[in-house]
């Protein structure tokens, strides 16, 4: 069954898209608390003058799980508009909220919009901990916020 957005990317595929398409934007949709305590993707190594501007931070929900009513306005504020299509890669903690974000962005005419499967640190593993899958586990650049 087709997805209601452009598709799912592994973290490595997401990085490759960001590295090869200077218009592509990574949007981390986790909460402010997650950014501060877990870390954030670091796109500073990407080629181009605007490498520091290749990642945006737009919460999908707040820390209590309440939807961000300004989500689409926040995306517009970071340069995503239907008038100027550009690839957008959504990332969350495990790849669930980013599906909803990619679906919403696509419905609003943004994108193509992609979801990063396994997110920043993946689902809880057999040991009860996260971090076995996702952006960090694949060794992609990240930093403390």
Automatic annotation (TrEMBL):
Domain Rhodanese: 20-129
Transmembrane segments: none
Gene3D superfamilies given in the database record: Rhodanese-like domain
A Pfam family annotated for this UniProt entry: Rhodanese
InterPro entries, A to Z: Rhodanese-like_dom, Rhodanese-like_dom_sf
Record's protein name: Rhodanese-like domain-containing protein
Organism: Cellulomonas triticagri
